[in-house]
Amino acid sequence: xxxxxxxxKSHAFGLFNIKHHGKVRRKKPGEIPGTAIHTGVQKLDEVxxxxxxxxxxxxxxTTLKSIEKSEKYLKKETKTWIQVQGLHDIDRLRTxxxxxxxxxxxQEDIVSTSQRPKVEVYPNVVFVVLRAIMVDSKTGTLTSExxxxxxxxxxxxxxxxxxxxxxxxxxxxxxxxxxxxxxxGPDYLMYALMDTVVDHYFVGLDLISxxxxxxxxxxxxxxxxxxLHKIHALRRDLIIMRKSVWSLRDGIxxxxxxxxxxxxxxxxxxxxxxxxxxxxxxDSIETSREMVFSLYDMYMSSLSHRMxxxxxxxxMIATIFIPLTFIVGIYGMNFDPDASPYNMPELSWYYGYPLxxxxxxxxxxxxxxxxxxxxxx
Amino acid sequence: xxxxxxxxKSHAFGLFNIKHHGKVRRKKPGEIPGTAIHTGVQKLDEVxxxxxxxxxxxxxxTTLKSIEKSEKYLKKETKTWIQVQGLHDIDRLRTxxxxxxxxxxxQEDIVSTSQRPKVEVYPNVVFVVLRAIMVDSKTGTLTSExxxxxxxxxxxxxxxxxxxxxxxxxxxxxxxxxxxxxxxGPDYLMYALMDTVVDHYFVGLDLISxxxxxxxxxxxxxxxxxxLHKIHALRRDLIIMRKSVWSLRDGIxxxxxxxxxxxxxxxxxxxxxxxxxxxxxxDSIETSREMVFSLYDMYMSSLSHRMxxxxxxxxMIATIFIPLTFIVGIYGMNFDPDASPYNMPELSWYYGYPLxxxxxxxxxxxxxxxxxxxxxx
Amino acid sequence: xxxxxxxxKSHAFGLFNIKHHGKVRRKKPGEIPGTAIHTGVQKLDEVxxxxxxxxxxxxxxTTLKSIEKSEKYLKKETKTWIQVQGLHDIDRLRTxxxxxxxxxxxQEDIVSTSQRPKVEVYPNVVFVVLRAIMVDSKTGTLTSExxxxxxxxxxxxxxxxxxxxxxxxxxxxxxxxxxxxxxxGPDYLMYALMDTVVDHYFVGLDLISxxxxxxxxxxxxxxxxxxLHKIHALRRDLIIMRKSVWSLRDGIxxxxxxxxxxxxxxxxxxxxxxxxxxxxxxDSIETSREMVFSLYDMYMSSLSHRMxxxxxxxxMIATIFIPLTFIVGIYGMNFDPDASPYNMPELSWYYGYPLxxxxxxxxxxxxxxxxxxxxxx
Amino acid sequence: xxxxxxxxKSHAFGLFNIKHHGKVRRKKPGEIPGTAIHTGVQKLDEVxxxxxxxxxxxxxxTTLKSIEKSEKYLKKETKTWIQVQGLHDIDRLRTxxxxxxxxxxxQEDIVSTSQRPKVEVYPNVVFVVLRAIMVDSKTGTLTSExxxxxxxxxxxxxxxxxxxxxxxxxxxxxxxxxxxxxxxGPDYLMYALMDTVVDHYFVGLDLISxxxxxxxxxxxxxxxxxxLHKIHALRRDLIIMRKSVWSLRDGIxxxxxxxxxxxxxxxxxxxxxxxxxxxxxxDSIETSREMVFSLYDMYMSSLSHRMxxxxxxxxMIATIFIPLTFIVGIYGMNFDPDASPYNMPELSWYYGYPLxxxxxxxxxxxxxxxxxxxxxx
Amino acid sequence: xxxxxxxxKSHAFGLFNIKHHGKVRRKKPGEIPGTAIHTGVQKLDEVxxxxxxxxxxxxxxTTLKSIEKSEKYLKKETKTWIQVQGLHDIDRLRTxxxxxxxxxxxQEDIVSTSQRPKVEVYPNVVFVVLRAIMVDSKTGTLTSExxxxxxxxxxxxxxxxxxxxxxxxxxxxxxxxxxxxxxxGPDYLMYALMDTVVDHYFVGLDLISxxxxxxxxxxxxxxxxxxLHKIHALRRDLIIMRKSVWSLRDGIxxxxxxxxxxxxxxxxxxxxxxxxxxxxxxDSIETSREMVFSLYDMYMSSLSHRMxxxxxxxxMIATIFIPLTFIVGIYGMNFDPDASPYNMPELSWYYGYPLxxxxxxxxxxxxxxxxxxxxxx
Lengths: 377, 377, 377, 377, 377
What we know:
With 377 residues, the first copy, chain A, is an alpha+beta fold.
């Protein structure tokens, strides 16, 4: 985990590579709603369509050239998971959408990759949009991508932006006879996908917590503006994460509460568990945000404290030496001792110089005692 | 987009040209409610009345001299959109209001251009007030104007302050056979107008995000009061935008939830999409507001950091030179060496001057080492 | 409006003349509830009772010596408005209360002039307490007074603290045949009174907005404590205003929602409009409060910026002259050149003085270049 | 009231003498719930039991030796108020509790004197816990004590910590024939007790308002840490007060809304009035809290302003004298005029000294003009 | 209690030894939900299973080797409490879970020791997760551990991480004939366990209150960064505590409101009491948080005040001595008195030196008077 943290530090600032506005491609105002326009960055050369067909007895995984090839699997009584990776090729995606006769607004949402997470119930499908947040194992930073899930009567279709291996543990569980995934319906698969995405948030939050603690240590030692930048970036990242999870809570809640034929009561118990995790994530984000506010306060007071220290040094130097300099100035005056016996007779005293030096030692000692009493030393 | 940003910078401060109070013309307290008084600025020479008549087969657009000319279109089974531009000529508008027998409170709201957005259901019409926020392509700043929509059984009447081309994409879609606009009823047209207005918010938010990022960069480099002014202006602009959208959310929600005969279930699915967008806009505004708060914190701490830097320089200079000046002062004293062997015999030493200089070099070196240890260098 | 603003400035600080606690007379704890005790300041010599009697055909206004004189008007089928001005003479007021058999708690609320605004429904009357906020045309400051309205089946009784002309526009409308005031029932009159009071809030808010803008300009130019006082006063005034409106919202809402026989559905549409205005006032107050918080932030950062400027000047002066003073100090030392060739031979060099001066010019130039690079100049 | 304020100032800080945690005696974790343990300080020598028996015709007050003596009063159809003062003697109290067969949790709450205010409805009694806040007439500070009220079918039992005369006005009203207290049932007596307690909050709030205003004046004149302490204490006191009232609101609200046989509809109208007062108290506390936050801001900016003033003086002194000191330093150098004509020939000029002095006057004038332009003077 | 406080001070900072993220072992994303993985630290050598069997007549406590030994007790009509201590040995725990056929999600939650507190109702058991916070009597710091309770028809099973003696008072009460614990059902036992855990929060809050008060005193005396660290730690600890209690409130509330056959109405009255305590704990946490915010403000203003003091000293020293040093500099100039009568004739005056000294005394006195007037002394 150490290396991940180092990754963060070398990285500009902020966990996400998001210029979260400005460069976003978007449906232009006034264009036909339900127009599918991919608003993200192309992350794959071409769209990959994986198919997982399974029931209690068997499991079969394959990659499809065209969506029509899925027909023989969908016709069977088995459960089918079609995993689509890559959202840049609208024409290819449209073959899938048309094949399953998806509502235009679902199509628009799948490729608009800056959607708020949401759960929407259509007459014969359930549509879920999630934002997956993962730690990139190479750079140690966080990346995020949109995951959309369409749940039908005997199939689940998932859409991802890249071939990120986030769902690999699911493959392993599918490949194991007797797991709940194999026994339960497609609604349980949808749950498993959602659970996986939500579990990844905890990993992201751990990374952020580490960064907060690292920043905290730096701030006290040496409060400099780069720490301030990190605080600012953490603040922004946490706001982005919160946006990603907040609306999910209500969505999952409505899945649990509402009477949706596609989702069985057994699975609802598990969805309640996901709901619990989402609430826990929100709690942790709030906690982290408070800690970041606290970091800012620490930064400001560290700055003030440093300033105080600097001022104390300056004041001590000045307070000690300015009177001394005044005294030596006096005896640098050129009053003519010959003109009058009142004109600086000290200069001709036998112990004049030692006495002057002694006076200055006494003043210095007095000052130091004064500073000691004021607790400046 | 670069030029837009430049436009902003050259502009005084703040995205809106709003002196949002004080100069507002208003119904005087106690005056008859439902009195139509135009509270905005005249933006057009005269009121323009465009009429768009359409159904699945045909589309016809024309400009009307008087509202009575619309009768032949309204009588047909086709759907009619009357687009009124310019709100300064109350007498002209009253001919329209009277023709459609609008409630006095609707009349008052159409011309009171500082209304909160709202959705109101009257016995036989639905009345929607929106605030459109657009990027002015010439100045690169934001402008805003009030858009009111009255939905009747087979017509939509829209009222705008100016001839702003915000709805031009709608014209194009109306002119295309087979679009949902042509197939669906007037409720879908109302939805399309609302959707267009809401989509424009995203463009405005992108502009604000760019400004926040530009300000952020400036602040760290050189925190000066003009940046503070920009922060203050951003804060105000975001509050104004929030006010414009917040109340819209509840309004659209009631359109979806309530049982309104004028709005079909098919259109409600689309209104749910607008609702989603409005919530997303509110989210983004909140995010931007938090970022602006964070900007202020950065500004303050940048100022403090600068002050610290200045103080460190001052303290170093003073700490190094004040003791040295004291020493040279000592040897500038005029104690009479003839009067006593104790009176500054150093002055007559063979290596007196080099020794004094050496002492000062040592002190300076010690100081620099001290600052180095304190990390001030 | 300029003069109004000037009025504010000359005025101590704060828009209200309120010492809002401390001097308040109150029912003592434990005293009989429903005890009518006037808690405000006497603003009139004696209680004035105006009566307005009207229906669609006629309108008659008169001033009553005693409340019994109103009997003949109340008996008729016309609508009657009894306007009571002055709350200090409990005995006189009691004749009115007894005549209309008002509940003791209504009596107490009418004369307790620091009531929260509220709407209460009693078996056969509706009781409304409002706080009117008006701009005093003489001083340009805000004054406030409590307005209570009792709505019965065919009458409205209003209680005010002073003879403030706030309701004069209503008189004019009553005097005009064919207005809704004349045609509708007493519930519409109650609405008209409420609407007038609420509309006055906008005038007050405009004044506050002007003050905020004026303060904003002053702060940047010259942040001094009197501006801070104004900010503090604005903060307090806005809190007071918010308290005055907040509870009104729920009250009016309950008038609209609940099934109250005294209020007709036609008037409810208008009350919905007042409700809208109240919400708009609350919005504006919140906006103003945020702007005032922002003002405080600006004040603090202006102070910090000024401090920075002062520190930079000090540091530049010190940084330039302290080393120079050190150098001139060196050549002021009295080392005996006769005692040794090492003792300050520079003093006897042919170009000693010009060289020393040149050295100092070089140091100064270096410093200035350094400050330029640091952007302190 | 002046003396009260003085009392506060001489007093340490903060209105309450509360070390609100730490010294609190409490039921140990795991002990039997419903265990009555007095958690407060003993304020009386022994428990006093006063009995007030009354109906419309007569009123009788007496002090009981033992609770059994109350039997003859309770058997009658009259209403009985048993006022218990002193909570330290659990054994004595238990005789009362057992006599009335109170629920163990009621017993525990009566003597746990750090209870949150609450209203609880048991099968045949209503149990109310209040926190009374009173101004101590001797010290001018606030004291608080817990008041519990048990309402039965024909009796009210009140428990207080001390013999504080808070309910004396009630005695007087009981002693007056024809008052509502005499005519209404025991529910009205409970209301009267609650009303008295709530009315005392206003007196406490007035005291706090006075303190806020006094502190405000002090802060601007002379911001020193003792003022900061007062702000801190006010902040704490207001939080404590808010805790005391907040939960009361919901409790009273449930008394009004719920269908409780022991409370008649007539009394509910009066409870609505208490509810209103509680909401008003909460409002005032929130207002006061905001004012205290504002005080802190004023304190901080007063400090900053003072610092600015100090810095300006320092900078002016330094800016004026440092260059002058440099100049006099120059002419204190000992370059040998005999060695070269370039070595400070000014020293031998006829007007050398006056010219040097004139130069310094000119520099000083220039500085002052500069400061004047910068508005530092 | 003094020693406890000392314990805290010697301790790093913060009451909890929690590195609350980062080192947490967790179910990996995508793993089978309901997988029991112990996420905490092993606190015991082996899992201990204590059994308490009791009814109104008898009480029997024993330690079980294996869970099957509990069969004879469970079969009887008596109530049985199985207390499991230690969560690290999943295999051992699984024998218990399998014996009672617990839902996989219950299993997961029992050993995931960073659960949010929650109350979940399964078809035939009630499952409660609590976070116990206790003062460690040795170190004086707070420790926390998760306590899970499973309530069945005639048994209660509790799971703890360690053999912490938190429930010992319950043993004593079980051992006493006639207590409610013996008389009531297992639901009362569950209540008693929850009550014990909640009561411990108060002890923790007392400790935090003491720390706040101690920190407050330190801050005013000597604001240094270690106090700031304590404030930061307190802030974090309070956020953690709040998370521990907040969700408990809703959970208990649902136990009271919902119709759960396993919980009798008699026990619900007691659960209402726990609910009350939880609300009181939340209140106290909020109060403490506000006090900690206030502490931070005090810290910052103490720093500012100190800075002010330092600056005043510096300014006074500089303001007094800089002019004096200038004067003595003047009379150190070497203008040639022989060259002109204008060249510093003062140096040869008879009273030149005394006059110069006198001038300086006058200037010093003037300065001191100035400072006195400015209230700097």
